[in-house]
């Protein structure tokens, strides 16, 4: 990831024979979530291939712990930081501290509410959610459920990518003339949180197909 910024290649080129390898820190919101674990494995593989040492620091979905990790690695003098933050506001704080320490930062997903960084790597969250919404609304109309409503269980809207996903999905609903039925934001991203009985509405239409 850092190689794409042009910064990594320069640092790697300066580390000659016998010199210590440059160090990277990956600050991630919660390594227990499979998506972040997969991303970490990719970061580690690429970083090691470029001659870097890299250490991961999981916040276990806690912004306070994430900030503690950031302060630790900045004081420890890492050469670069990759961050997948707990939320976009927290990311802005990390960027502020990293800039004060003269450490470059790459953001890997989620996004930031502000601050200076080398690169932001993400998917097109708004378009992806819009496309999912189009698939859902076409199916609803095909089943004769055009008068139905759609509830949204979303990642936190304090995340830039969360806001983008919601906006794209709502755009698809609006175009199809289907109403929303409110939004519930995830907190711990667990199965139990996503599928509670609260969201199971008695008498809701169900497909037999």
Automatic annotation (TrEMBL):
GO molecular-function terms, A-Z: carbohydrate binding
Signal peptide: none
Primary localization class, coarse: other
InterPro entries with a match to the protein in the record: Peripla_BP_I, SBP_2_dom
Assigned GO CC terms: cell envelope
Keywords: Signal
Compartment(s) of residence: Cell envelope
GO annotation, biological process: transmembrane transport
Domain Periplasmic binding protein: residue ranges: 25-179
Similarity-based family: Belongs to the bacterial solute-binding protein 2 family.
Name of the protein in its database record: Periplasmic binding protein domain-containing protein
């Amino acid at each position: 990831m850092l190689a794409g910024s042009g910064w990594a290649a320069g640092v790697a080129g300066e580390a000659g024979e016998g010199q210590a390898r440059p160090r990277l820190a990956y600050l991630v919101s919660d390594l227990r979530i499979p998506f972040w674990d997969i991303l970490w494995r990719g970061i580690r593989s690429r970083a090691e291939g470029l001659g870097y040492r890299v250490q991961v620091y999981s916040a276990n979905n806690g912004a306070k712990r994430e900030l503690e990790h950031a302060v630790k690695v900045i004081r420890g003098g890492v050469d670069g930081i990759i961050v997948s933050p707990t939320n976009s506001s927290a990311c802005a704080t990390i960027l502020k501290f990293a800039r004060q320490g003269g450490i470059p930062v790459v953001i890997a997903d989620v996004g930031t509410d502000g601050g200076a960084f080398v690169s932001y790597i993400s998917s097109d969250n708004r378009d992806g959610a819009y496309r999912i919404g189009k698939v859902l609304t076409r199916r609803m109309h095909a089943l004769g459920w055009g008068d139905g409503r759609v509830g949204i269980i979303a990642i936190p809207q304090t995340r830039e990518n969360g806001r983008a996903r919601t906006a794209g999905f709502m755009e698809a609903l609006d175009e199809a003339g289907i109403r929303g039925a409110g939004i519930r934001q995830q907190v711990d991203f667990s199965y139990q949180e996503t599928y509670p009985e609260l969201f199971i509405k008695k008498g809701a239409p169900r497909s037999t197909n």
